[in-house]
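Journal club side-thread
Mid-discussion, someone asked how the predicted structure for our own chain would compare to the paper's figures. Pasting it here so we can look after the session.
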Amino acid sequence: MISLCDLRPSPLRAGIAVSMIVTALGFFCAASDAQTPFDSSDWTWEAEISARDAPSGFVRLLLTPEIVDASRRSLTDLRLVDRSGVLVPHVVSTPRRRPAKQWTSVLLTNRTYRAGEFVRATLDFGGRDLKNHVRVTLSGDNYRRYALLEGSENGTTWSTVESAWLFHFRDGDLVYDATVLRFPVNDFPYLRLTAYNMEDEPGTIDVVKVETSHHVLEEGPAPLPLDIRVIPVEPEDEEGNVTLFDIDTGFKHLPLRALTIEPLTPYFYRRYELLGRDALTEAYERRIESGPEPAVRDVPWSTIQYGVFHRIERDDGVDEALAIDELARSFRYLRLKIVNGDDAPLDIALQDIEVTRDALSSLVFDRRPGEQYRLFFGNPKAAAPRYDLGRSVESIDSSDLPEIEIGPLTRLIEKIEPESFLERYTWLIWPVLGLAVVIMGAIILRNLRNLNPRD
């Protein structure tokens, strides 16, 4: 009987054996890196896509508030897969939003003062710049002043552009103001601003700074009303006379556009603060003598915006500002805090508080005929996928694409099917393979040492 150790292969045979081992290792590694079906084990939700009657080609999958609520705020955890479970490239299309204002400082000339009455300055644009907003910074704190804005072609003859009340209140480090005049777009090379003193301001006020902007509202879907729940809150630990309303918008991550009130109180001006949070409570570990223990606490509120609501009678009608129409941040839960000062609270019915939102984002992808798709979402750790499709569809207007809708949502659960031996002991593959390589290498090395040089 011949043992394996007595075999004396030639160098050619030894080389072939080594090559086979290297090839086997390469094949194993390549197989492990090959494309595999999408692993949904870390995703919380799945939805079928109802697209049987949809045309082939690029389509737009409309997201719902439920999907936006369960996904990351950035929507980077959305994954679209086909019938075989392979990822399908997609692009998240967000409706056009109103651009942020770009404020530009204006040269102030021809300042005129009349002590105890008004201050006046000319805004010299040096050309015909388009503009429809003017933001004014006046001297002093805690004021309410009437402002008149006029336009001129030559700096001599003036016509009224807009007039409004300007407010500025400082409470410690907090500032509440309404210091922007809005008017139809014009290209006057000169504007003249006149700010009148309050009755109890005998001195001279000053125009500290004036900025302008051309704020264009891009055409797009009209704002959508939200079915909100408004709850009056009894103030606790609040200084002064304040009114609190808690508002539940129903879902997280909605693109909120505006909050509007409609008080029955005839004339007023009140400071407000708008706060928000996405959850009522949160879990945390409380440290005690015996060690950390699980506990629950209220989620703190985050400030969204400060400002002033007002309704004031003028000679030519009523001037009012009752909307917070440029929400900088979006939360599910809102708290509206109105500072009443020494006045009675505003007469506001719960149904007179409204919140609107913009249209939701959608997914654009290339639908194949007869193919079925599923959408996975709800993974807080998922990074954004990287597809070439984004650059390929930059010129496509997604609003013109055929729309398809999301089917029923299903919460994913852990599989309870018994695992196979290989699935259960996958970690053994590499150690066994490594041991085999070591044994084969030892055999080859031993036989190479025993080779006759004449062979």
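Post-session note: The two ends are 23 Å apart (CA to CA).
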